[in-house]
Amino acid sequence: MSGEDLSDFSMLDLFRAELASQSQAFTAGLLALERDPTAAVHLEACMRAAHSLKGAARIIDLSPAVQVAHEMEECLVAAQHGKIRLSRAHIDTLLQGIDLLAAIAAGSEESEPETKRRVDAFAQILRRASEDLDAAGPAASGDSAAPVGAEPITELPAPAASPLPETPAPAGDVAGGERMVRVTADSLNRLLGLAGESLMSARRLRPFNDGLLRLRRIQAELAKSFEDLRAAMPADADDRAAQALAAAQLKLAEGQALLAQRLDEMDTVDRRATDLANRLYDETLASRMRPFEDGVRHFQRNVRDIGRALGKTVRLDIVGGATSIDRDILDQLDAPLGHLLRNAVDHGIEMPEQRRATGKPAEGLVRLEARHNAGLLQIIVSDDGGGIDLEALRQATLARGLTTTETVWDLSDEELLEFLFLPGFSMKATVSDISGRGVGLDAVQAMVRQVRGQVTVTSEPGIGTRFQLQLPLTLSVIRALLVEIDGEPYALPLTAIARALRLPRDRIELLEGRPHFRHGEQQVGLVTAHEILGRGEAAAGETELATVVVGEGDNLYALVVDRFLGERELVVRPLDPRLAKVKDVSAAALMDDGSPVLILDVEDLIRSMEKLVSGGRLRTLERSVARTGQKRRKRVLVVDDSLTVRELERKLLDHHGFEVEVAVDGMDGWNAVRSDAFDLIVTDVDMPRMDGIELVTLIKRDPGLRNLPVMIVSYKDREEDRRRGLDAGADYYLTKGSFHDETLIHAVVDLIGEP
After folding, report:
1. Pairwise pLDDT comparison (361 vs 722), residue with the higher score
2. What is residue 4's predicted lDDT score, i.e. its pLDDT?
C-alpha cells in the first residue's frame, strides 16, 4: 500500500471502498448461512466483515455506521457461540443492515435524528428476531422462523437504500489483493490501440529479415558463379584477370561475413521486439478483462429477494466465476442478465408445493455460467423449473396476431420459442412489479446483436429452461475470417459465421432460376461478394467456391468469395464518424504488415443479399453453375493452437497445391474431421482442450476414420515422445526443430502422394 498514491481519496471514499468490498463477502456468507445456519466458516467470514466495517466506521467517526455494524457483529457472535440459530428473519434483517450502511455511506440528505431513528429501528428488529426465535423454542429452525411465502420482517422505516457507490477500491483491496489505480475506459482503449500498433510494427521487421536472407542466398549463388568462372579459366590465362577475380572473391567473402553478422543481429532484434510487443499487447488486453463473478455476484441476493417476494425459495449458483470477460461486455450484460434471471424466478421456478408434488426439492435452482469455448464467450442462464409451456406460447402468438391458426401448428419448437424475443411479447396476462410488460427478452437480443453475438433458448417440460448467449471475448479485438474479394482482403467476424466451406460446383443447383445448395436440411441461396460490394464479376474458373454461410435459423445465405486467407485476431478500429454508416461495413483494422482491412457488417450483408435475391439481379453464378470438371485437390487439415505455426504450414501446403483447412486445437480438429472429408491430418501435440495424442487416438478408434493418415509435428524430439505418438496410431512423427520446407512436403507426399 505504501507504493500507492491515495491523495485523491477522502476518508469517506476509503470507507465506501471498504464497504463495497466487505459487503460482497458479507452478502455471499449470509446467503450461504440461509441454507446452513451453523456453517462455522461462513459465520466467521460474516463476523469478520462486520467487525472490519465497525472499525473502519469508528476511524472516520461515522457513528450511525458504527452502531449498525456493531449490532450485526453481536448477532453473528451470538450465532457463533450457539446462543441463537440464524433464521430467515435474521438473514433478511442483516441484509437490510448492509443496505442501511450503503445509505449512510452515500451521505443522504436526511436529518441526523431521522438517521438515528432508522438505526435504532434496525437494532430493535434484529434483536426481536432473536427474541422471537427464543420464544419459539429450541426446535425452531431457519425455515420455521420465516415460512416460505411469508412477508419479510418489518421493513426499516426509510426510503430504499442507495446502491453502493462506484468508488474505486484503494490499495490492499480485500477482494482482489492487488493495488488498484483509476484509469478511464477511453485511456485503456487508446492504450490497447497503441499496443496493437506496436505489435504490428514489430512484425514488420520480419520482411526485412527475409529480404536479408534472400540477399545471402544471392551472394552464395554469386560465390558459386565465381568459383565456376575460376574453374573455367584456362591455365595460361592473364594474371591480371586472375588477380581481379581473386580480389572480387575476397570482397564477396567480406560482404558475406558482414551480412551474416548483421543477419544474426537482425534476427535477434526481430525476436526480441516481437516478444516485447506481444507481451505488451497481452498485458494491455488483460487489463481490460475482469472476472465474470465481479459483475454478477450481486445477482445472488437479487434472485433470493425476488423469490422471497413471490413466495418461492430460489438459489443462484454462479459457475465459472473466474472466467475473464471484457469490462465493456460485462457492463453491458448487467441489464440483460437481470431480465433473464427475473424471468427464471418468475416464469420458470414453480411454487414450493408444486415442486414437492413433482418430486423436486422445494428450493429452486438457477445457474449462471460463463466459459470460453472455441475463442468465444458463452453465458448460460438455466433453471430447474417447469419449462416453457409451448401450448400457452402458441395461444399467446395467436392472441397477439403474430401468426395464423393454419400456420401456428406447423411451427417447430425452435421457431415458436423465437417469438419470445419480439418487442412487447409476454406470456403473462397481468403486469407485476417483476415482469409482464414484455420488455425483457427483446432487450437481451438487442444487446447480444449489438456486440456481434447470438442468443438461443431451449426448454424441456418439467426439466427447465436454458438461455445461451454466445459473445466475443472482447469488443476491442475480434477473431475474424479473412477472405479475398477482387484482390482485396476483407474480414468477417467468426461469431457471425455459421460455416465456412469449399463448395464444389456440382453441388450447386438452380431453384426457380436462382443458385442454391443443400446445407443440412435447408436449401441455402448463393450470392457472390463481388455483386454485394459492387466489385465486378467473380472469376469463373475454379471447380470449388470459397463460401461463407451467414445468418441464423431459416434466414441463411451463402456468400461466395474469391478465397480464404485464414483466421486472424484484429484490433477493431471504428471508422471516422464523418463517414456516417458505410453500407455493408462495420469497422476497420490493421493487418500484420500495417495494411488496412475492412470488417464487414454481416447484418448489412444479409439485408443486401435479400434485396439482390428479391430483385432478381443475380448474374454471375447463374451463368457458371454447370462449369465443373477439374480434378479435386487433396485436402489436408492442419491442427495447431499456434497461429504462426498454422499459417506457416497452411501456406506451405497450399503453395504446393494441397487444399488446406485449419483447426485451433484438438477439439476443433475432432469436430472438423467428423464433419468433413480429408486426405491427411497434420497435428501438434500440446494443445488446450484436447491434445494431439487424444486426437490421434479418437481418429484411429473410429471405424470410419481409422484409415485416415495422421502426421504429428511437434517440438518434442525425445524418443519417448515419438514412441508415444506412434503408439497412439500416428503414421508419421516430424519434429519442428528439424523441420524445413522439403522435409514436411516430402513427408506429406510419402503419405498421400502428390496434390
Report:
1. 361
2. 42
- pLDDT, residue 621, reads 58
Number of residues written out for the chain? 755
| CB contact burial 363-393 (16+ within 10 A = b; e otherwise) | bbbbbbbbeeeebbbbbbbbbbbbbbeeeeb
* Per-residue model confidence (pLDDT) at position 682: 93
Residue type, 340: L
For domain 296-426, give the fold. Heat Shock Protein 90 (3.30.565)
Which CATH number is correct for 11-145, 1.10.10.10, 1.20.58.1000, 1.10.357.140, 1.20.120.160? 1.20.120.160
Percent of the chain topping pLDDT 70: 83
Assigned C-alpha cell, 347: 416464469
Whole-angstrom distance, CA of residue 496 vs CA of residue 517: 20
Q: Which CATH superfamily is domain 477-623 in?
A: SH3 Domains (2.30.30.40)
Residue among 498, 502, 522 at smallest CA distance from 511: 522
Q: What's the pLDDT band for 228 if we cut at 50, 70, 90?
A: confident
User: Would the CA dihedral through 506, 525, 602, 562 be positive or negative?
Assistant: positive
Domain extents in the chain: 11-145, 185-287, 296-426, 477-623, 635-752
CATH of domain 635-752: 3.40.50.2300
Query: 0.70 exceeded by the pTM?
Result: no
Please compute the mean of the pLDDT values over residues 359-377 and round it to a whole number: 89
pLDDT tens-place string over residues 561-579: 988 998 887 878 778 777 7
Q: In what order do the strands lie in the sheet with 363-373?
A: 313-319, 363-373, 376-383, 464-472, 454-460
Distance between first and last Cα of the chain: 64
Q: How far is CA 675 from CA 289, 440, 501, 548, 707, in A?
A: 34, 37, 11, 16, 16
SS (H, E, C) 280-297: HHHHHHHHCEEEHHHHHC
What's the grid cell of residue 192?
A: 490497447
Contacts of 559 (CB under 8 A, 6+ apart): 527, 528, 529, 532, 547, 548, 549, 550, 605, 609
Query: Can you give 110-175 as a three-state secondary structure string?
Result: CCHHHHHHHHHHHHHHHHHHHHHHHHHCCCCCHHHHCCCCCCCCCCCCCCCCCCCCCCCCCCCCCC
Q: Are 664 and 375 in contact (CB under 8 A)?
A: yes
Q: Could you give the 3-state DSSP secondary structure of residue 601?
A: coil
**Would strands 635-639 and 680-683 be described as parallel, antiparallel, or unpaired?**
parallel
d(CA 511, CA 265): 62
Query: pLDDT digit string (tens) for 416-433?
Result: 888 888 877 776 655 455
> pLDDT averaged over the chain?
79
Phi-psi region of 603 (alpha: psi -120 to 50; beta: other; left: phi over 0): alpha
Under 8 Å between Cβ of 692 and 670: no
CA atoms of 352 and 361, how far apart (whole Å): 8
Which helix H or strand E contains 647, and what residues bound it?
helix 643-655
Q: Assess contact for 168 and 180: CB atoms under 8 A.
A: yes
Report how far residue 350's alpha carbon sits from residue 357's, in angstroms, rounded to the nearest whole number.
11
> Mean pLDDT, to the nearest integer, of 491-516?
82
pLDDT the model gives residue 538: 66
Per-residue pLDDT tens for 54-80?
888 887 888 888 889 898 888 988 888
What would the mean pLDDT of 305-325 be, rounded to a whole number?
Answer: 90
Write out the H or E segment, with its range, that includes residue 477: strand 477-485
